[in-house]
């Protein structure tokens, strides 16, 4: 439960990348600023600052959310995942990350963290998406470099790898 401390700061408790976290912030603080500036999690990119580009996408309770327009207090009691929380604790890449790397599904990389999180959310809810579903799902994240083809192929490859499981 959010509480106002004696000095007027808002205390927000949530799970961040699998760890219980409590922060003190102000009511006007947006999640992207909290993550990037206060918690030094720079993988959440900010481009437009108006919920248009998708670069700042994070997962809140498993679903995409624009961190640039989500107040920090809105994640009270919620589960937040950033790109820093995607790989396994031993450093093993998530299947989506591995597929993006194998396909070179990025150029400048600015949209990549948001794309990977969108793909993870998609595959958690639709493990065998068709091409149109993938395109619709990632369309909220603008990529000015790749033309999306390699991104779509990477998501298809990740879906296949996740369905088939680890290779022996």
From TrEMBL:
Name the record gives this protein: (2Fe-2S)-binding protein
Name the UniProt key words of this record, in alphabetical order: 2Fe-2S, Iron, Iron-sulfur, Metal-binding
Q: What one GO molecular function would you report for this record?
A: metal ion binding
Indicate the segments forming the 2Fe-2S ferredoxin-type domain, all copies: 10-86
Organism in which the protein naturally occurs: Pseudooceanicola sediminis
What InterPro entries would the database entry show?
A: 2Fe-2S-bd, 2Fe-2S-bd_dom_sf, 2Fe-2S_ferredoxin-like_sf, 2Fe-2S_ferredoxin-type, Beta-grasp_dom_sf, Diverse_Oxidoreductases
> What SUPFAM superfamilies does this protein map onto?
2Fe-2S ferredoxin-like, CO dehydrogenase ISP C-domain like
């Amino acid at each position: 439960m959010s509480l106002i401390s004696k000095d007027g700061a808002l205390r927000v408790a949530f799970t961040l990348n699998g760890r219980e976290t409590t922060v003190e912030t102000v009511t006007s603080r947006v999640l992207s600023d909290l993550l990037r500036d206060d918690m030094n999690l720079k993988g959440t990119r900010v481009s437009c600052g108006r919920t248009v580009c998708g670069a700042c996408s994070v997962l809140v309770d498993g679903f995409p959310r624009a961190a640039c327009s989500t107040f920090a207090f809105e994640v009270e009691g919620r589960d937040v995942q950033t790109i820093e929380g995607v790989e396994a604790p031993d450093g093993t890449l998530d299947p989506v990350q591995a597929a993006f790397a194998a396909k070179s599904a990025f150029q400048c990389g600015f949209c990549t963290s948001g794309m990977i999180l969108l793909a993870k959310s998609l595959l958690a809810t639709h493990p065998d998406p068709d091409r149109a579903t993938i395109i619709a799902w990632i369309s909220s994240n603008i990529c000015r470099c790749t033309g999306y083809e390699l991104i779509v192929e990477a998501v298809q490859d990740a879906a296949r790898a996740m369905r088939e499981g680890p290779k022996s």
